[in-house]
Amino acid sequence: MTNLGPGTALLSRNKNDRFTTLPFGEGAQLVVNKRRSAKEELAFQKSAANYLGARHVAALLEHYGANCVLDVGANVGQYAKQLRRHGYTGRIVSFEPVPGIVEKLRRAAAKDPNWWVYPHALGSTETSTTMNVVSGSMSSLLGPSEFGNRRYKRFSKIESQEVSVRRLDNILDEVLDGIDEPRPYLKLDTQGYDLEAFAGAGERIREFVGMQSEVALMQIYEGMPRMNEAIAAYEGAGFEITGMFPVTREESTGRVLEFDCVLARADSLVTPPAAAPSAAFATQ
């Protein structure tokens, strides 16, 4: 396989080739390196899960006619950029409380008028509080657990910063302003604080057609809810699981630490599957 530039590669085959192709559904083939190591296998599985998860979310947003995605825990805009790559053209509202990261996020969104940025965390109470800021995308309102400290060296260097916390139900009218018949979707990635952000939606969570949340099998942060507790809360609010995608896996044991859990509110599906594509998606 020869890289010919962005988005293009030349695939050639011979009897000694280390690559093989596998059917990957109608209209797709998966090219696999047959000689990959165990470490490369884990990296392959992670990349495949990321890609399939992104495709699943894009299909869900279109199927349910979502026209505003609330990107809570946006970091520098990776999720929003992913939505755009997969064809979503509707409004994105990103929430990121860490000042230095917010500036990078604003630069990422600067040329996209339908991508808004708010410099807040979301929680169950309107307040100002201290955030534990670390390098990368693992800053949290919660402190690291004993397991988290063992696993991530970056937790040895934590900087405390004061951040603003808003309730979602107090800001929802503002972020949906100007959208006729809003059909919002909630993405949560708050490093252990997802249930607090979810609680801040109050009864207005019923307005959301779908959501996704990182749910934990292992507690990386002190006091973060385990997967069963989080899913019970989401199901109790009327959401049902449409997909589970591994986010982090422990290499030594193979166990999954976190899943990206995607859910939808089935009774909000008001148009039949054969209906015209959502206006929030680019026409192919």
From TrEMBL:
Top-rank taxon, per record: Bacteria
Listed GO MF terms: O-methyltransferase activity
UniProt keywords, alphabetically: Methyltransferase, Transferase
Protein's UniProt keywords contain Zinc: no
Coiled-coil ranges from the UniProt annotation: none
Methyltransferase FkbM domain: residues covered: 71-207
Gene Ontology biological process: methylation
Alphabetized Pfam families for the sequence: Methyltransf_21 (PF05050)
Cited PANTHER family: NODULATION PROTEIN (PTHR36973:SF4), SLL1456 PROTEIN-RELATED (PTHR36973)
NCBIfam families on file: fkbM_fam
Protein name, as recorded: FkbM family methyltransferase
Lineage, opening ranks: Bacteria, Bacillati, Actinomycetota, Actinomycetes, Streptosporangiales
